[in-house]
## 1
Amino acid sequence: MIRLQNVFKDYGGRPALVNINLHIALGEFAFLVGPSGAGKSTLMRLLYREETPTSGNVFVGGVNLNRLQRRQVPLLRRRLGTIFQDYKLLPKQTVFNNVAYILRALGVEEKEVAKRVQSALSVVSLEHKTDAYPDELSGGEQQRVGIARAIVNGPPVLIADEPTGNLDPATSLEIVQLLERIAERGTTVLISTHDTTIVNAMRRRVIYLKNGEIVSDVDSGVYELEPNLNL
Amino acid sequence: MRQLRVLWRVCIETVLGVKRSGWSNWLVVSILAIALTIFGGILQVTMTLKNVVTAWGSQLEISAYLKDGYVPKRVAREISQIPNVQLVEIVTKDVAWEEMKSTFKVASLANPLPNTLHIRVNNPDGVDKVASRVKLLSEVENIRYPLKVARKINDFRHFIEIAGFAITAALSAATLTVIGNTIHLLIESRQREIEILSLMGVSPFYIKGPFILQGAAYGAGSALVAIGVLTGVHLYLDPYVTEQIVSLAPFLAKNLEYGMWQTFAVMLGLGVLVGAGGSAWTSGRYIKI
């Protein structure tokens, strides 16, 4: 579902990603870990085409993103659910409208919008908060709204860039467990994080990035600060 | 159907955008309304003058004013021999004076009017030739003919046209700047929202559309204000202007005015074009998706 082939990315000669080769299958759940500045966010941005690689190929759902024209980028992003550390909710819109926004922008009928939004909110257990505004919610609830928004259009891939960065440990674990349940329905989930606690609690695939290189890629792994090389 | 729903949503977003803009809506509409009022007024005046020129110029008549002491009948006979002259009508100074006294209140003084000959020419090309021949006659003091006046009016119309359109162009440029800045401020205040929408895969049309429609709405709103002002001015001035035209040139048809509806349609079109164009340019420049 996600494939990177010999991907290099540099910013003005400063390398951010170095020869990345990675494959994440359909329905897989994986963590992308590493210290700050390791290149996690750069790799995530390549997946939703916020950035393009300096060289190499990035495939999402079989589509080579290098060949994607500018006008096709929105089509890619509709097939990806993206979750952000700062939630990126529309502050003046209710929970319902935040989740419904993309469906309405796609011209989905209002009855269908209501049905799909309620369904997405029930997955994240927020069906009772439809009329609340983001600033009336806790951090964990806001992130759950972000997740509901990401899954409302039924994307085959979910990418979460530091989704627990602003949350306390207990809420972080709840959020990651929620993402795991979503992955069990057949959605590919890739989470970038530097939170050792949640990674070690889940025991799922762990891809370790350091200085822009993958230094470890382990199934059922843990996040050690200096991993054994195990590629 | 899906496209219609998207369009409907874009319209809703446009209305929300207008609500968010607050006082700047009034600034944009006022400036654009001033520009459109000037443009509409100039269009109305120049097109009406054009109609006057056409109607006046089509009058194939020359008035020759005779020197005192000559017999009008004899001069009329002489003029009727000139090629292209169809008819010569004599209006003696006494008849003219009586007519004038019946129309206007005039002081009791000696008749100052000359004997006049109204010369009808059989085709427009002959008017100048006949006029130059008549002018050479020793019995003729002066001549006047509508075509000559029409040419002067036309020169005046050209001047108004050029000056007016230059003013309109300058005001339109100023309006474009104001619209551009207003939409730019709106884009800046919604930059985070635009970024979120872009990351969610919302189409550029859906993101930029409301800004462009907002500009078009400014144009349409301003045009309606300008149309209201022009209609008021028209209703106030029309009886006076018509009376003046009829008294100055009774032979002119009463409905010389260029159609108001045509003027309004042009104003509305220009307003929407300037509004939408300014917004489209600004959106294209500042919204990077």
## 2
Amino acid sequence: MNLILLTPLDLAIAATLVVALALISLRLSLGIEGKLLIAALRTVIQLSLLGLVLKFLFVQSHPLLISALAMFMLFVAGYEVMARQQRRFSGIWGFGVGTLSMFISSFSVTILALTVIIQAEPWYSVQYLIPLLGMMLGNTMSGIAIALDNLTQNAWQRRQEIEARLILGHSWDQAIRDIRRNALRSGLIPIINAMAAAGIVSLPGMMTGQILAGTPPMEASKYQILIMLLIAAGTGFGATAAVWIGAKRLFDDRERLRLDRLGKKRA
Amino acid sequence: MGSLTLKQFHAPLLEPIDLHLRAGECQTLSGPSGSGKTRLLRALADLDPAQGEVSLNNQERSTFSAPQWRSKVGLLLAESGWWLERVGDHFKQPQAELFERLELPSDAINWEVSRLSSGERQRLSLIRLLSNQPQVLLLDEATANLDQANTAKVEALIADWREQHQVAVLWVTHDPQQRKRVSDHSWLIESGRLRKAP
């Protein structure tokens, strides 16, 4: 299990490929070379910083520092969920619904995996916790963002139907049920597709990484299976929580549909 | 049977209103577009928040759950909402008699909502509301999409219905003739105030 170390020169060679692509873009006036280079630069900087932070945490594995990093990751993911909403809840709810749901699902599933399944020593050891949490957050984030967006968009568009049901004496729960169910389905479909295609169409990134690092393929497969299952569960629980809290927030204590709690539509 | 009482009821755009509708009584409400008529009805049905008191048979609204209140104080909006494909799936118990009164065939319950004309929608949503046995009716332009013959049928049906079931009716209408035909008392909205119509 010898890991071949990459030198700065190795990375520079890969970088010249991207620069070449940028030149082609310039030549064909695709107008995308600026974005491409900035994104590539961000990748280099962000991942280098992450490497530095993790290196530091491997040495200084103080629980407080680890939880600070975990919270930082959660807030960035929460912000990302909010940014992807066309009609977000106004006020603290815009950020809160997604962040709280991710906290509930990603954190509990990760902690369960670390304590019961992987049984790392200690359970919060950086080597396991941070990569696992990162994968969980990254994936639940998309599921929750899609589900919430679907919920608020449909509540807005189908206002007449919802109110017709309220008028006839349906409870808020009945009135939003179909919309809520569809929202949840839309949030879960990507991870279901990903599980169905795993290993046939796509070679998952984490498994690739472990194999490159010298892990025996079967061990890498097992880790990947574990991760996929955890992600599916985490996304499902997270999207359920988000859609439930979101749907509840669309109604007030007298079960009125309160679309005024949503902000203006964004592009 | 139902009476409706408003005490300093404060709907959007309007000054606080005191109003009493006896059981079996019909009052109409007119006023320029955007003067707050629909919003008053929505607030009375508890679809929109509002200040002040409103009670059904002298029982304050807050003593009812919201769904209870809305099924007793039935609101008919100008644009009806339908959430399933088939008309009949929106009814608890479709009453054949009501379909007859509005000259809709009894198999109208099997119609597809997406193929309804605006007049059919309006009549069917009235039938749907009445089938729900409300004790008070709040009607917003209940005949706006109907021709004269159908308007007459709807007016007759509502008149009989309030007689038989002693429901109070608050009817928003633009039509001065209709106002005279259907109501005991008419109100006009003028700069946010309710004024007795001449």
## 3
Amino acid sequence: MLEKIKFYQTGSNTVGNRLLNPSMRTIQASVDRPNALISGHRACQGCGEALGARYAIDAAMRATGGQLMVVNATGCLEVFSTPYPESAWRLPWMHSLFGNAAAVGSGLASAAKIRAQKNGDSVVPRVIAQGGDGGTTDIGMGCLSGMFDRNDDVLYICYDNEAYMNTGVQRSSATPPSARTATTMPVGEHPGADWGKGKDVPLIAMAHGIPYVATATVADLRDLEQKVTKAMSYHGARYIQILVPCPLGWGLKSSGLTVTAARLAMETGFYPIFEAEYGKITSVRKIRAKQPVTNYLKIQKRYAHLLKKNADPNTVARLQAMCDQNIKDFGLLGDDQPELNPTAIQAYERSQAI
Amino acid sequence: MTEQIEGSLGVAKAVALCRPGIVCAYPISPQTHIVENLGKFVKSGALKNCDYLNVESEFAAISVSIGSSAGGARTYTATASQGLLFMTEGIYNASGLGLPIVMTVASRAIGGPINIWNDHSDSLSQRDSGWLQLFCESNQDALDTHIMAFKIAETVGLPVMVCMDGFVLTHAFERLELPTQEQVDAFLPEYEPREYLTPKEPISIGSMVGPEAFTEVRFLQQRKMAKALKVIEDVTAEYRKITGHHSGGLLDCYRCDDAELKLIIMGSTVGTAKDEIDRLRDKGVKVGLISLKAFRPFPYEALRKAIGDCKKVVCVERAFSFGSRGIICPEVKRAMEGTGCDVKTAIAGLGGRAIFGTTINGIVRAAFEGKFKDEMTWFDVNSNVLNSYTKDGEGVTFPEGPLSDSQLHASVK
Amino acid sequence: MLQIRLHGRGGQGAVTTAEMLSLSAFLEGHYAQAFPSFGSERTGAPVVAYARIDDKEVRTHEPIQEPDVVLVQDRTLLGVVDVFGGLSPKGYAIINTAEKPEDVVPELCKKLPKGHVLTVPATDFAIKAMKMNKPGAPMLASLAAATDVLKLESVQKSFQTRYPGKVGDANAEAAALAYNYLKDKMKEGK
């Protein structure tokens, strides 16, 4: 039916909801949207994480008929949403520690199951555990892997803004090479974050053979909603990693550039967007209008040192090569088929180092 | 039912009688046999409506427990030593969130150097964690205390550590009397939390509390601890009435009437000491024993009453505070402030060094002979081992033990 | 109170033997306790386990330094470990070997009352009955034969309780072999 729709907003890749039949409309367009994360919280303007969380949790609320509980790792999302005695969460929500959201989620899911079993309830509330990239890829990695290992019925959502924003923008294992953070300053011979460091948690998640793994961004919110909805149709351990630009930490030229930055991350190949089921990639979000990496870099102060007059041009070239490698590995262009065994981008960096 | 079984199996059976919803643990000696048995009960179907989670670390074990307790399930876990320390962040979180988790600590020394044997340095390292800490003197006491612990935790709204000496109790095969399922069901009804995470009534748990309310949150938490003192006594009385077992309580006195010296001991050494006190009493030595069962909350009033007019007290301690002294002794001094009671610490039984009846005998004799000059004395220290290290390196030699704190300090001057 | 110390090697079931000793005593209505020497011994390493029997609650948890009975489950421990250390002058020693007591431990035979040092080829009986070097049941049966501390039936029942089915029955059979062997020996001695 999409072919029959006349696109008024050409070039923007967005489609007005009024043109679609109700079943295809976004959850946020509905008057009875869940509003799980309600307005009035303390996030910065332009916060990608708040946007991502709102869409993701509302989609899961819709998918579960409101039978949803959330465990939140320590981080910006937790801090800005629940300053005592207020809470912006309109669903059962708990925060325990920085590194244990996945395990708390396992316990909560188990308790929900046992309580339903004991009371003879047919509906078992579902559980989402969520955290930032620090709470997921670094300090929460053990608990995350354990939850995957046991295939506990938990969807883990990582809001990836590529550094520790809550504590003042320090490097995490999700920080890209050459990016400036408070602990990888643009000084010395190799400014910014080191090359050949970091890890690819979506691929690590896939290696656990769990039912569903996906990446998404806040630039394609329909895609994000669909992925969350799909994730909730599975039982067992699931993982979604959402790129959520942080205007402050990334030094976006304006706080209105959050979605633009996320879109450029996709359209450059910098951040591959895909789905995997039971360890195998099953779909890839194709690049619509390929962009050079400089277009992505130039709107962020964290990369400003790369584009200065006296900067080493090789660094930008390496970042472009990294994007090209992603495009090749994941088949992000045209009719390309993805590699059967996509490789963590760090592998290329490390192999070059030797 | 009376059975001749391992202490760990007794505790596992007691926990199963409490019908937990979640059991979650990571293996560490000497806690393993307890959770192995529980895993078997769940898998065989003997323990119904219960999930057993094999997790990847103690940090995950306490975290899963936090989630399941917040989700409204009766929750049990167990650990020891390094595992307890690895849990620490979650331990404080569980008490702060007021989650009534029950956890066995099969007490064991903390490394380095690594040591798998029993002392109390692990459990006592968590004395400020906001958990109730109940110590067990025998396996019968341990299995009964676990059943009481669920009721205490759920009544007070705080988690409980049941501390039983690793190996000495957990691995001992003894005659144990288990209450019946009917008795336990009557004593401990199905867990119905006052508050838990459910879509039926959405709440936020664990939000960020700033300076405007944090002190009050802590005050209220401390108030729960104060409430726990009476709850422990009430629950103990009820349990004793139902089962006839003399277990639990804040503390227990043994041959304390007319005692001129009272020993204060926690854990499995109590039994050994009781036998020795009988022998000493036969010889006319007026010595009694206070078995300290609740360390947190600390029963200051009950202890003051139990010590009474007695002017000589020695705490036999199986842990101490580096750079300070004993851990039990200062608490006892607080309880006895203004009474002129002389309270001392005898350090013994670290890292599994056996405390024999003769050790207790030696402590009693030394106390009556006025040999405890300093507040703390290393009672069962082996000077030969010390000297093999200090003699060549520093030219320092120690006389045969016991060694007082001032001897230790003099040796560095 | 009767205190028993067992010496064996990791893998021979010394800890289980102590536990079965306590279970046998329990089955006869006594209070009993068994516990291992706690360590991280691997297969083949010397292992010590303890047991106590009494007619009132056993409260003490100290290791046994002055045993009334020493059971040596592995002959190769003699001379390696001070297995008879602290043994009561009126005590009993039972050693797993086919050799005569006077040939194995002549000094000990002089120290203890006549008939208090016994040898029994427990491993042979274990292998005969259950094809395994688990000499626990025959060792306990020997204690039953030499003293009135335990009955053979209790020893058999303890193993059959712990290992229902074939393994328990084989242990019971091995126990009977050792019991009869020692009873015959004791008759010869008289």
